[in-house]
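sanity check this:
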Amino acid sequence: METKNSAFKDFISPILVLVAICFAVTFLLAFTYGITAPIIADNTAKAASEARSALLEDANGEFEDANVELREYEPGKVYAVDCYKAKNGSGIVVTVKSNSYGGLLTAMVGINKDGEITGVQITEHADTPGVGTKAHDSTHLSQYIGKTDLGSNNIKAHADDVVEATGASVSSSAVHKAVYCALEQFKAMGGVN
Protein backbone atom coordinates (compact mmCIF):
# COMPACT_ATOMS: atom_id res chain seq x y z
CA MET A 1 0.00 0.00 0.00
CA GLU A 2 2.85 2.35 0.78
CA THR A 3 4.38 1.82 -2.67
CA LYS A 4 1.10 2.98 -4.25
CA ASN A 5 1.08 6.19 -2.17
CA SER A 6 4.79 6.63 -2.78
CA ALA A 7 4.28 6.29 -6.56
CA PHE A 8 1.47 8.85 -6.48
CA LYS A 9 3.53 11.23 -4.36
CA ASP A 10 6.71 10.79 -6.43
CA PHE A 11 5.31 10.78 -9.97
CA ILE A 12 1.67 11.75 -10.35
CA SER A 13 1.49 14.57 -7.81
CA PRO A 14 4.29 16.65 -9.44
CA ILE A 15 2.69 16.17 -12.87
CA LEU A 16 -0.66 17.41 -11.57
CA VAL A 17 1.01 20.44 -9.97
CA LEU A 18 2.81 21.30 -13.22
CA VAL A 19 -0.40 20.96 -15.24
CA ALA A 20 -2.21 23.25 -12.79
CA ILE A 21 0.61 25.81 -13.02
CA CYS A 22 0.51 25.66 -16.84
CA PHE A 23 -3.26 26.26 -16.85
CA ALA A 24 -2.90 29.18 -14.43
CA VAL A 25 -0.10 30.80 -16.45
CA THR A 26 -2.01 30.32 -19.71
CA PHE A 27 -5.11 31.91 -18.20
CA LEU A 28 -3.10 34.88 -16.87
CA LEU A 29 -1.39 35.41 -20.25
CA ALA A 30 -4.71 35.30 -22.09
CA PHE A 31 -6.23 37.72 -19.58
CA THR A 32 -3.27 40.12 -19.91
CA TYR A 33 -3.42 39.92 -23.71
CA GLY A 34 -7.14 40.69 -23.62
CA ILE A 35 -6.44 43.86 -21.67
CA THR A 36 -3.33 45.04 -23.56
CA ALA A 37 -4.26 44.14 -27.17
CA PRO A 38 -6.70 47.05 -27.67
CA ILE A 39 -4.23 49.48 -26.08
CA ILE A 40 -1.43 48.29 -28.37
CA ALA A 41 -3.70 48.52 -31.42
CA ASP A 42 -4.75 52.05 -30.45
CA ASN A 43 -1.13 53.16 -29.93
CA THR A 44 -0.12 51.62 -33.28
CA ALA A 45 -2.94 53.46 -35.06
CA LYS A 46 -1.96 56.77 -33.40
CA ALA A 47 1.70 56.31 -34.39
CA ALA A 48 0.70 55.55 -38.00
CA SER A 49 -1.55 58.62 -38.08
CA GLU A 50 1.27 60.82 -36.75
CA ALA A 51 3.68 59.40 -39.33
CA ARG A 52 1.20 60.08 -42.15
CA SER A 53 0.79 63.66 -40.96
CA ALA A 54 4.57 64.17 -40.88
CA LEU A 55 5.03 62.67 -44.37
CA LEU A 56 2.27 64.73 -46.00
CA GLU A 57 1.95 67.96 -44.04
CA ASP A 58 -0.46 69.53 -46.58
CA ALA A 59 -3.10 66.98 -45.53
CA ASN A 60 -3.52 68.78 -42.19
CA GLY A 61 -3.67 65.41 -40.44
CA GLU A 62 -6.91 64.34 -42.13
CA PHE A 63 -6.70 61.02 -43.98
CA GLU A 64 -9.07 58.32 -45.11
CA ASP A 65 -8.50 54.83 -46.42
CA ALA A 66 -8.12 55.07 -50.20
CA ASN A 67 -9.97 51.74 -50.67
CA VAL A 68 -7.90 50.74 -53.69
CA GLU A 69 -6.35 47.50 -54.87
CA LEU A 70 -2.92 47.40 -53.26
CA ARG A 71 0.18 46.78 -55.37
CA GLU A 72 2.23 43.66 -54.82
CA TYR A 73 5.45 44.39 -56.62
CA GLU A 74 7.29 41.21 -55.61
CA PRO A 75 4.90 38.69 -54.02
CA GLY A 76 5.81 38.17 -50.38
CA LYS A 77 8.85 40.44 -50.68
CA VAL A 78 7.72 43.96 -51.69
CA TYR A 79 4.08 44.93 -51.37
CA ALA A 80 1.79 47.74 -50.24
CA VAL A 81 -0.15 47.03 -47.05
CA ASP A 82 -2.27 50.17 -46.91
CA CYS A 83 -2.89 53.41 -48.73
CA TYR A 84 -4.43 56.51 -47.19
CA LYS A 85 -5.38 59.63 -49.12
CA ALA A 86 -5.62 63.11 -47.75
CA LYS A 87 -9.21 64.24 -47.38
CA ASN A 88 -8.29 67.55 -49.02
CA GLY A 89 -6.80 65.78 -52.07
CA SER A 90 -3.23 66.91 -51.38
CA GLY A 91 -1.74 63.41 -51.77
CA ILE A 92 -1.44 59.89 -50.39
CA VAL A 93 0.65 57.97 -47.91
CA VAL A 94 1.43 54.36 -48.79
CA THR A 95 2.72 51.79 -46.30
CA VAL A 96 4.95 49.18 -47.92
CA LYS A 97 6.61 46.00 -46.64
CA SER A 98 9.98 45.26 -48.26
CA ASN A 99 12.34 42.34 -47.75
CA SER A 100 15.52 43.61 -46.10
CA TYR A 101 18.58 42.04 -44.49
CA GLY A 102 16.85 41.32 -41.16
CA GLY A 103 13.48 40.40 -42.69
CA LEU A 104 10.58 42.58 -43.79
CA LEU A 105 10.85 46.27 -43.06
CA THR A 106 7.89 48.64 -43.06
CA ALA A 107 8.22 51.97 -44.85
CA MET A 108 5.70 54.78 -45.16
CA VAL A 109 5.99 56.99 -48.23
CA GLY A 110 4.23 60.33 -48.70
CA ILE A 111 3.40 61.38 -52.27
CA ASN A 112 1.75 64.69 -53.11
CA LYS A 113 -0.96 65.22 -55.75
CA ASP A 114 1.75 66.00 -58.34
CA GLY A 115 3.35 62.59 -57.78
CA GLU A 116 6.36 63.95 -55.89
CA ILE A 117 7.68 62.09 -52.88
CA THR A 118 7.25 64.29 -49.81
CA GLY A 119 8.93 61.98 -47.33
CA VAL A 120 9.95 58.44 -46.43
CA GLN A 121 9.93 56.95 -42.96
CA ILE A 122 10.93 53.47 -41.79
CA THR A 123 8.46 52.49 -39.08
CA GLU A 124 9.53 48.91 -38.38
CA HIS A 125 12.58 46.80 -39.17
CA ALA A 126 14.90 44.08 -37.94
CA ASP A 127 18.07 45.29 -39.67
CA THR A 128 21.43 45.37 -37.89
CA PRO A 129 21.70 48.51 -35.74
CA GLY A 130 24.47 50.82 -36.90
CA VAL A 131 24.98 48.98 -40.19
CA GLY A 132 21.71 48.19 -41.97
CA THR A 133 20.01 51.07 -40.21
CA LYS A 134 22.22 53.53 -42.11
CA ALA A 135 19.68 53.12 -44.92
CA HIS A 136 16.92 54.23 -42.52
CA ASP A 137 18.66 57.45 -41.56
CA SER A 138 16.84 60.66 -42.46
CA THR A 139 19.86 61.84 -44.47
CA HIS A 140 19.67 58.75 -46.68
CA LEU A 141 15.88 58.87 -46.97
CA SER A 142 15.84 62.58 -47.84
CA GLN A 143 17.39 61.87 -51.25
CA TYR A 144 13.98 60.54 -52.37
CA ILE A 145 12.15 63.78 -51.58
CA GLY A 146 10.93 65.56 -54.70
CA LYS A 147 11.39 62.56 -56.98
CA THR A 148 8.48 61.54 -59.20
CA ASP A 149 10.05 58.51 -60.87
CA LEU A 150 12.79 56.09 -59.93
CA GLY A 151 12.95 54.40 -63.33
CA SER A 152 13.28 50.94 -61.84
CA ASN A 153 13.41 49.14 -58.54
CA ASN A 154 17.17 48.57 -58.88
CA ILE A 155 19.05 51.10 -56.75
CA LYS A 156 22.32 50.37 -58.55
CA ALA A 157 20.77 51.61 -61.81
CA HIS A 158 20.30 55.03 -60.20
CA ALA A 159 23.73 55.70 -58.74
CA ASP A 160 23.60 59.30 -60.01
CA ASP A 161 20.22 59.94 -58.36
CA VAL A 162 20.11 57.74 -55.27
CA VAL A 163 23.21 56.63 -53.41
CA GLU A 164 23.33 53.44 -51.32
CA ALA A 165 24.20 53.80 -47.67
CA THR A 166 27.78 52.59 -47.22
CA GLY A 167 27.88 49.04 -45.88
CA ALA A 168 24.10 48.67 -46.10
CA SER A 169 23.49 47.64 -49.69
CA VAL A 170 20.74 45.11 -48.89
CA SER A 171 18.88 47.55 -46.61
CA SER A 172 19.36 50.39 -49.13
CA SER A 173 17.92 48.20 -51.85
CA ALA A 174 14.95 47.27 -49.64
CA VAL A 175 14.19 50.93 -48.96
CA HIS A 176 14.53 51.75 -52.66
CA LYS A 177 12.14 48.95 -53.62
CA ALA A 178 9.64 50.14 -51.00
CA VAL A 179 9.70 53.69 -52.40
CA TYR A 180 9.43 52.35 -55.94
CA CYS A 181 6.40 50.24 -54.94
CA ALA A 182 4.74 53.30 -53.36
CA LEU A 183 5.23 55.30 -56.57
CA GLU A 184 3.79 52.39 -58.55
CA GLN A 185 0.79 52.38 -56.20
CA PHE A 186 0.27 56.09 -56.89
CA LYS A 187 0.47 55.50 -60.66
CA ALA A 188 -1.89 52.49 -60.49
CA MET A 189 -4.44 54.68 -58.72
CA GLY A 190 -4.20 57.28 -61.48
CA GLY A 191 -2.97 59.84 -58.96
CA VAL A 192 -5.12 61.37 -56.27
CA ASN A 193 -8.82 61.38 -57.02
User: Anything to note?
Assistant: The radius of gyration is 24 Å.
